[in-house]
Structure prediction request, 287 residues.
Amino acid sequence: MLKKLRTTLEMIKIEHTLFALPFAFLGAFFAARGLPSPSEIGWILLAMIGARSAAMAFNRLVDLPFDAKNPRTASRALPRKRLSREFVILFILASSAAFIGAAAMLNPLALKLSPVALAIIFLYSFMKRFTWSTHFFLGLALACAPVGAWVAIRGSISGIPLLLGLAVMLWVAGFDIIYACQDVGFDRNEKLFSIPKRFGIPRALWISGFLHACMIVLLGFLYRRMQLGALSLAGLGVVAILLAYEHSLVRPSDLSRVNAAFFTVNGWISVLLFVTTGIDILRLRVP
Prediction:
């Protein structure tokens, strides 16, 4: 059982929770106007891990027919039959229960919205069968992190977490477009949809860059509205440089460094934004 669990965590790349978790805590910091209580942090952490684990395992399960055909994904645990479908289903149910249970411990609105959040993150797995806007739906799924964390603290929704969520959506859609460039040929053969397939890789990379530029502008507007200090703006400036570096790694004729652009750079971006903005929130006691 432990071996299966370890294989499942490897399959869903549990370490990539790092992408969304800092934004969830930013939403919580904004909502609390400082540091949330230890219990709130603990339940938000459990909710994030539960939701992402359920979403990733569901995605691997639903995409099994495609993963088995795609050379890039054929070595994953389910295509290689290192895990059974039944075990993955149980893992999804357990992770979903952990998410809903954590939401119940936070406040009534968080509990009421938890099925909506699960519906969004599960629905994403089917979107590439119908629309090339699938990247934005993935962004919407991760945008639930800061909005959900705000709800966890305040028990309500306002414009601030929605703006932060929109910034997350733009960021995620942008880097997912880069990642999808690897599968253009496969998507054509399997009649799947993506922006690189619809517009071609060169235009897709331009669209990705535009989305990331919009993310920087939106966060700059949000930081001014929240009256954050120089540290947050400096962090945002470094993030802009990192995004420019991310795009410099990828060329239409050379996608060999997509993984570095996707995993390494974006991991640093999420952590940097959380550290610099979080420190400013704690230091300035944002109004």
